[in-house]
Amino acid sequence: MKTKCALLLAVVLGPAAWADDATTLTVGLRAWSNTWSTWDVYPPTAVGNAYIPGASENFSSQDKAALIPSVSLRQGDWLLSASRFVKTRYGFDGNEGPFSAKREETDFHAGYYLLPTLALSLGHKSVKQEFSGGTEFKYSGPILGVLGSAPLTRGFSLYGNVGYGRVKGRFPVADASGRAKFDADYWLGEAGLAYSFEGVAAAKAMTLTLGYRSQVLATQGFRIALSPTTNRSTELRDTTEGLALGLSLSF
């Protein structure tokens, strides 16, 4: 559901990013205070000779702080990076009472700087969601990203990144047509403010970031039963969003 484009570690360097052939290693840690909105589906209910159609419904969690450690390696205009959304437990209030779920994500990306403050990336994202009762949902697939920054003054800069991927979802339950594998659209958007300190101890730079991040997993073509003999296709939307605070060091 992050991330995210791990190349953000390079973007937050803003005007302090290195455009020569020197090798730069950046390590970082982000705290993302986010709300997770996920879905559930219900079968049709018989009422006499008729049916109340089945439906989907979304539930939102309480705010939760998730940690995202990251590492990137830049050589000239090329960049490799990885990040991990550490497994985090969320609490929900459902129609049948409270329930909990765990979420974790992994990103790997390679990128190229078209300009000193504009880069394209291609990578792979995986998401795993574990719900009460042992059910496990998985998404994975390629992600395209565009990221950039705009220097302001005295170490400040604006940053932003967007990402899109057509990923595969694998569910522990089948829909009304009997399928348990689906295509899903993954969307990422993040924008915020960065501040860089140069020459901090042994590091080339230390960067603080504060931004708003939103990511969406929209499962396509899930069929919900309206009755024992009819069904309809719907989109199931899973969203995580909130403020993200980050710290990174470049060597």
Automatic annotation (TrEMBL):
Keywords of this entry: Signal
Signal peptide: 1-19
Residue stretches spanning the membrane: none
Intracellular or extracellular location(s): Cell outer membrane
Claim: Signal is one of the keywords in the record: yes
One GO cellular component term: cell outer membrane
InterPro entries reported for this sequence: OMP/PagP_B-barrel (IPR011250)
Principal subcellular localization: membrane
Record bears the keyword Mitochondrion: no
Name of this protein: Outer membrane protein beta-barrel domain-containing protein
Phylogenetic placement of the source organism: Bacteria, Pseudomonadati, Pseudomonadota, Betaproteobacteria, Burkholderiales
